[in-house]
């Protein structure tokens, strides 16, 4: 708890990097945030400039100039309602609702979908299982049953096996509430959940009356790399959560989409858990703006990332390996012996932020900041830093 507080204070960031060791990197690299329009970062979900208060408020000033209808009142009206409508359309769900955090969106979805049933089947590597402070157990009285330890994917067969095991082994039965899937999987370097398996699981859950929740914090990334539309993913699930700050530039917040019968219950529970904020538009308006071209931006990013990877892999100094079934996270290996701190510092002077090496590779996340510079130019800057940081 205190570690996390120290980190957040030190880093002063909203766009939390992908992996926990990125968090440690972030603490030392990113405090304080200094605005740099040309900055490329290889470990945040998006452009770090959105975490600069001056940049963020200027953007808001542009978006609000002359507009009279953007404010909300406790989440009702203005850009909040507009964002909710947009997301209902994007996911093909009846309704969507703004929720102050992804953690709250996940937890409330699980709570409402499962009703009095207590069991929730979930990836062992998921954010809900590992990174939500045991809220499902301690606040909502749910029992999380982990599947596929250390992996991003589980199969329908594994799910059935676990369901049968728990059903058969219980004398005093308590019901099955929800099956929850995270896609892409943050702790597995952005690995995708296999879509064919997802469809099979969805059909099985419908047949047996089990509810299905999607933690799609980075669902647009999944869609961009798999080619499967957000709507097709969403169709497999009863509820879908998407983060507003990871790829939509907002200072925070989440959206939860689903049937009206579920979504209409959410405001009451947001209030009960103390998350009912008077004004939410500064979050919603930024996300709404960045939602407009998200598919094109991420598709351009993916393409540029692939071109850059090809360039890197032709070089003598660096090599990028993709994650099997992955998205925008890869492993960068640096050949020969270099002083990594010097390498990182030299790149930072040129407005390029890299993570730190672990076991000889640097986890590297390709986000839209890569669109800011020419690939050859970027490689040239990396090679210059490499030559100066070489130790042998
Ligand atoms: C996959 C996943 N789900 C949920 C969350 C929670 O989001 P929030 O920080 O808005 O609570 C995160 C945040 O890092 C995440 O990566």
Blueprint (SSEs and pairs):
Layout: H1 2-11, H2 20-29, E1 40-41, H3 53-64, H4 78-91, E2 95-99, H5 102-114, E3 119-123, H6 127-130, H7 135-138, E4 143-147, H8 156-169, E5 176-182, H9 195-208, E6 211-215, H10 219-226, H11 230-235, E7 239-243, E8 254-258, H12 260-263, H13 266-272, H14 281-291, H15 294-313, E9 318-322, E10 329-334, H16 340-349, E11 352-353, E12 357-358, E13 361-365, H17 375-389
Parallel strand pairs: 1-11, 3-4, 3-5, 5-6, 6-7
Antiparallel strand pairs: 2-8, 7-8, 9-10, 10-13, 12-13
Helix pairs in contact: 1-2, 4-14, 10-15, 16-17
The structure holds pyridoxal-5'-phosphate.
Pyridoxal-5'-phosphate (PLP) binds at residues 16, 101-103, 106, 127, 182, 186, 215, 217, 243, 254.
In this entry the ligands are: pyridoxal-5'-phosphate
Secondary-structure class: alpha/beta
> How many individual domains?
2
What is the strand content? 15-25%
Number of DSSP helical runs: 17
What is the number of strand segments?
13
Task: Calculate the mean pLDDT score and round it.
Answer: 92
Q: Any idea of the CATH class of the largest domain?
A: Alpha Beta
Characterize the overall form: globular
**CATH level-two architecture of the largest domain:** 3-Layer(aba) Sandwich
Largest sheet entry: 7 strands, mixed
Low-confidence stretches are: 1-22
DSSP helix fraction: 40-55%
Give the name of the CATH superfamily of the largest domain.
Type I PLP-dependent aspartate aminotransferase-like (Major domain)
Radius of gyration: 21 Å
Report how far apart the termini are.
42 Å
Strand order of the largest sheet: 2-8-7-6-5-3-4
Order of helices and strands: HHEHHEHEHHEHEHEHHEEHHHHEEHEEEH
CATH topology of the largest domain: Aspartate Aminotransferase, domain 2
């Amino acid at each position: 708890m205190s570690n996390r507080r120290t980190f957040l204070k030190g880093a002063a960031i909203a766009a939390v990097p992908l992996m926990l060791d990125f968090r440690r990197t972030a603490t030392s690299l990113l405090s304080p945030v200094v605005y740099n329009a040309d900055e490329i970062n290889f470990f945040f979900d998006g452009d770090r400039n959105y975490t600069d208060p001056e940049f963020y408020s200027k953007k808001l000033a542009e978006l609000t100039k002359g507009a009279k209808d953007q404010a909300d009142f406790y989440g009702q009206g203005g850009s909040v309602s507009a964002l909710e409508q947009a997301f209902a359309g994007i996911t093909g769900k009846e309704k969507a609702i703004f929720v102050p955090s992804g953690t709250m969106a996940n937890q409330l979805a699980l709570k409402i979908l499962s009703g009095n049933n207590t069991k929730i089947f979930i990836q062992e590597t998921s954010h809900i299982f590992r990174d939500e402070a045991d809220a499902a157990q301690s606040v909502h009285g749910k029992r999380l049953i982990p599947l596929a330890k250390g992996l991003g994917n589980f199969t329908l067969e594994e799910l059935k096996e676990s369901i049968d095991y728990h059903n058969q082994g219980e004398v005093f039965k308590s019901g099955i509430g929800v099956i929850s899937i995270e896609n892409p999987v943050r702790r597995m370097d952005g690995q995708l959940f296999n879509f064919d398996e997802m469809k099979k699981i969805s059909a099985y859950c419908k047949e047996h009356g089990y509810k299905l929740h999607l933690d799609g914090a980075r669902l647009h990334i999944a869609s961009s790399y798999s080619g499967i539309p957000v709507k097709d993913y969403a169709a497999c699930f009863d509820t879908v959560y998407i983060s507003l700050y990871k790829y939509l530039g907002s200072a925070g917040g989440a959206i939860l989409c689903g049937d009206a019968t579920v979504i209409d219950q959410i405001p009451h529970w947001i209030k009960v858990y103390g998350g009912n904020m008077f004004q939410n538009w500064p979050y919603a308006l930024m996300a709404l703006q960045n939602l407009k071209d998200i598919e094109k931006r991420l598709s351009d990013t993916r393409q540029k990332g692939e071109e850059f990877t090809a360039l890197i892999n032709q070089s003598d100094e660096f090599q990028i390996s993709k994650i099997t079934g992955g998205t925008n996270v890869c492993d960068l290996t640096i050949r020969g012996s270099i002083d990594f701190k010097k390498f990182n510092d030299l790149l930072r002077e040129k407005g390029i932020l890299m993570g730190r090496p672990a076991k000889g590779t640097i986890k590297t996340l390709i986000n839209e900041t890569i669109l800011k510079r020419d690939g050859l130019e970027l490689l040239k800057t990396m090679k210059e830093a490499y030559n100066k940081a070489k130790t042998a």
